[in-house]
Specification:
This protein is α/β, with parallel strands linked by helices. It has 2 domains: 153 residues, 3-Layer(aba) Sandwich (Rossmann fold); 75 residues, SIR2/SIRT2 'Small Domain' (2-Layer Sandwich). It is built from 10 helices and 9 strands. Helix 6 packs parallel to helix 10 and helix 8 packs parallel to helix 9. The chain starts with a helix and ends with a helix. Bound molecules: 2'-O-acetyl adenosine-5-diphosphoribose. The site of 2'-O-acetyl adenosine-5-diphosphoribose has 31 residues, from helix 2 and helix 10.
Length: 246
């Protein structure tokens, strides 16, 4: 994008930020790409030639829990060694600037909280939480590497990642909180998501139809770029500081 065009867009968004009473941010794995964590649909996201859609499913887990746990163990080891980037920190700063602020993330890496965001709505769960398939208890587990297959400390049942897999329902409370935020946003940022996984892929359209000004930050065009008021092509870790600082 030519510099003058970028500057014009930044100025327009800053004006919106100055007037907005409520802001919602939706993030995807591209935000954590600048921390060195592979996105799902990028080439580095592939693990042993499997795609996320083949492993992040209840069917894959019941067929081969060891394989699915090995994939999560690989991802947990990558994430454990990484830190939040400027993008995460800018989103935490934005939160401090608005009394009505909501962060909805599809990311499960926990980097938003590490950067200081409070109460992100973790739509797809958290990779550091496990859930017992027998007694359903949820607990934190930070073991890297994890013992495979991990067992529940209370009942000895098989633990699974506390992640919302393809074909599973999102937690109703998270959905309700998200819809309420989307219906009451003056300004929404959609950062680092390809916009192909529902329901998050529909959130920008929902917010816009309720009057929000919607801004995308992504180095590439996405499936939802056409829904945006402004699309800023660039890396989240580089663009967000231009919006929040300077
Ligand atoms: P994807 O891998 O589908 O998309 C990542 C997006 O980030 C792409 O549009 C990239 O262009 C963009 N991107 C890459 N580098 C970036 C950067 N430095 N700054 C900003 N954007 C960048 O990831 P998600 O949209 O998050 O679900 O995927 C959605 C869900 O599908 C995930 O939560 C996961 C996955 O399967 C589950 O695991 C249940």
């Amino acid at each position: 994008m030519p510099l003058s065009q970028l500057q014009e867009k930044i100025a327009a968004i800053k004006e919106k930020l100055g007037k907005a009473g409520s802001v919602t941010v939706l993030t995807g794995s591209g935000l954590s790409a600048d921390s060195g964590i592979p996105t799902f649909r990028g080439a580095e996201g592939l693990w042993k030639n499997f795609r996320a859609e083949e492993l992040a499913t209840p069917e894959a887990f019941s067929k081969d829990p060891r394989l699915v746990w090995e994939w999560y163990d690989w991802r947990r080891a990558i994430i454990a060694a990484k830190e939040p980037n400027a993008g995460h920190y800018m989103i935490a700063e934005l939160e401090k600037m608005f009394s009505r602020f909501h962060l909805i993330t599809q990311n499960v890496d926990g980097l938003h909280e590490k950067a200081g965001s409070t109460n992100p709505i973790e739509l797809h769960g958290n990779i550091w939480k496990v859930r017992c398939t027998r007694c359903l208890q949820v607990a934190f587990n930070f073991d890297v590497p994890v013992r495979i297959p991990p067992e529940c400390r209370s009942c000895g049942g098989l633990l699974r990642p506390h992640i919302v897999w393809f074909g599973e329902s999102l937690e109703p409370e998270n959905l309700e909180k998200s819809y309420a935020a989307l219906a009451n946003s003056d300004l929404m940022f959609v950062i680092g998501t390809s916009g192909v996984v529902q329901p998050a892929a529909s959130f920008a359209g929902m917010a816009r139809s309720r009057g929000a000004f919607v801004v995308e930050i992504n180095p590439e065009e996405t499936a939802i770029t056409e829904v945006m008021d402004i699309s800023l092509q660039g890396k989240a870790g580089e663009i967000l500081p231009l919006l929040v600082h300077s």
